[in-house]
Fold:
Amino acid sequence: MNKTFGIIGGDRRQAELSQLLAGDGHSVRTYGLDRWKPIGADSLDHAASADVVILPLPLCKGDGVLNCEEGAVPTADLFRRLRPRQRILAGQVRPQQHQEAESFGLTVEDYFLREELAVANAAATAEGAIQTAMERLDQTLLGMNCLVIGFGRIGKLLSCRLRGLGAHVTATARKPEDLAWIRAYGYSDLETGTLDGHLSSFGAVFNTVPFPVLTGPLLAQLPQNCLLVDLASVRGIETAENGPEVLWARSLPGRLTPRSAAAAIRDAVYYILSEE
Structure:
């Protein structure tokens, strides 16, 4: 597989990705990553002319605007520069951008739908969540009561790592089968919608659910020194005046473990291309 790769926009993950692809012997062109001194810095048009165009995770940082540090690039303006026969890969593509790309005769493949990448990202997020919490806490996780809201990929891996550090883990879910798995792993379980009256003992709360879960009345039940870490793409924990500290810890792999995150994206891209 001898391809020219164009990496456009994103964060340090994409800069690291450029180095990994170049290290594998590929020609790489990049745009919008100058802050991290990537391999192959070039113009937008030249990067967009590559055989394979890799766009960020997530694709957009606003409504119809590419996730790019170097300036506002409307996705429509980018798609106008691409060709129908190119392989165009992006992460967390919204329906609007799929439709927009189709209007230009393009197909955008969502590499974040690959299970192997989603699991690797979840593992990095769980590790980053614990790092973030430990940097803010004034006590160890050993013996601490910790609540993990949501038992998807991140919730499962985070609960496991917290248990490994000696925390007492309670996890929440909505589906009976997920609650059964929580109990099977040996964690305490709560139904996500019935947290009222069960929050007074937690020293740290980690949310993975992308809709409001902890709102004003529930926040008031938490200890004042409880640390709240919101990992969801859409805030699930409200901030309240004089309430516990809330850290909105989005995109942790890109900030804390960018090289590992980049390696996972590279592997997913290679899998996609090998399945042509």
